[in-house]
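Give me structure tokens for this 165-residue protein.
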Amino acid sequence: MVLNDLFVDGKIYFKKDFYNVYFKNISPMLETYRGIVYPWECDMFNHMNVQFYVSKFDIASWQLLGQIGITNEYFSQENRGMVTMEQHIKYQRELVAGDLLIIRSTLEDIRDKSIQFRHKMYNSIKNELAAEAVLTSIHLNTMTRKSCNFPAEIKAKFQIALNKK
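Here you go.
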């Protein structure tokens, strides 16, 4: 084995093949975050504090929405917004300072005024699921502060994404 190879589960992989073996076939999820656990994000037990799981999942949410056309430009031009009404996080493995992370995300459901999506946070070196979040968000008219229907073109993009699952 050379330094450019990885030894995993009794097999040797070239680094370029590692992504395909371990992440490409996980599911039709989109990579929405890539980063590291910084020491200042850890609690007194050297585990990433829960507030930073939420923060990283929030970043992933905006990346996912942006891929479907729900962008800052859309919000300002259409006087729209998104608010998360429900969030469930399941913690699977502890993360510590220096761990490298990938979040992969997918849409779960679309309704007239709401969407549900799922994020999976992986320790990208160990290929372990660290946490999973399911969020329900509401489409909002920022002038009236009331929920409103998604435009047909955005809902169509959601449907395309859901059908790829």
